[in-house]
Design a protein that fits this description.
Cytidine Deaminase, domain 2; 16 strands; about 35% strand; binds zinc ion; mainly beta; about 10% helix; seven-stranded mixed sheet; elongated
């Protein structure tokens, strides 16, 4: 029998094995999650946080299968974002894994002062675009576009020494992800909107597009 695209599971004794081709909804002791994985990324994203008595907790998680991305790739990406900003446009970069290591990708795209148009490619772990000198909050357009199983990021305040970063994933249910969970770099080199100690309202925002948050 062909597995369903999306399946619906109950965490009776720990996390059940994956079943849906794309992802599963899993009901656990700590709420309802989407659980999804590909060769690069494993995610457990809360859809609704609540106590369900008698079931095992699922816990939110974001795991990079090949480990964190080296800081040299972050620095290279930042150089592209800053160079595009100086030339007057946003730009999108992506990161993939070629079997030996992570690689930066600068896909062909149409750039404009406040927009980019590009075609997402399979095999990307992360898509990240710039918001030039303004904040790194996701726009409504970003939310509509970012519906796949991957990490998405915005980098803003590129005029400042510490750019502002905002990472999340996936499938339209957005789990805020700390920059230090993705990049192997010095946390003080960026202003991370999802840094652990920066996240008092984290639980409230879990399943909300930040742009639509109160
Ligand atoms: Zn944007």
């Amino acid at each position: 029998m062909t597995p369903p695209l999306v399946d619906y599971l109950v965490a009776r004794a720990g996390l059940p094995p994956g079943s849906g081709l794309a992802y599963d909804y899993v009901v656990g002791g700590d709420g309802v999650f989407i659980v999804a994985a590909n060769p690069l990324l494993e995610l457990r994203v809360p859809v609704a946080v609540c106590d369900i008595r008698g079931l095992a907790p699922v816990f939110a998680a974001c795991t990079l299968v090949h480990g964190p991305i080296p800081c040299s790739i972050w620095n290279e990406a930042l150089r592209f974002l800053r160079a595009a900003h100086v030339r007057g446009s946003e730009i999108l970069v992506a990161i993939r894994h070629d079997g030996d290591g992570y690689r930066l990708v600068v896909p062909s795209q149409m750039v404009a002062p406040l927009a980019v148009k590009y075609k997402p490619q399979p095999g990307w772990l992360l898509e990240m675009h710039s918001h030039r000198d303004v904040s790194a909050h996701f726009s409504a357009t970003d939310c509509a576009d970012e519906q796949g199983l991957r990490l998405y990021g915005v980098v803003g305040r590129l005029d400042e020494t510490q750019p502002q970063v905002n990472l999340r994933g996936a499938y339209g249910y957005f789990l805020p992800v700390p920059w230090t969970s993705v990049f192997d770099g010095d946390a003080s080199s960026v202003e991370d909107l999802n840094a652990e100690d920066n996240n008092a309202e984290h639980e409230e925002r879990l399943a909300l597009c930040p742009n639509e948050a109160r």
